[in-house]
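User: Run a structure prediction on this.
Assistant: Running it now.
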Amino acid sequence: MPKIKTHKATAKRYRKTAGDKLMKRKSGQDHFNARESGKTTRQKRLDVGASNTISKTINVLTPYK
C-alpha cells in the first residue's frame, strides 16, 4: 500500500504538542491592527488550541507529523 501524502498547507499551520494537542496561530494578525486595543494585540500573539472536530480532520491530512 502506498504512503499517504501530507497536506503541506495544513502541516505549516498546525503543530502537535507533547500531549498530542493541536496548536495554531490566532488569526487576524496581518493588517488593520493599529486600531486594536493593546489587550487585543497582546492576545493575538498567543497560540490557540484547535477544536476537537477539526483535530480529527487535521490528523488525516498530516499522518506523519
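The chain has a mean pLDDT of 90.
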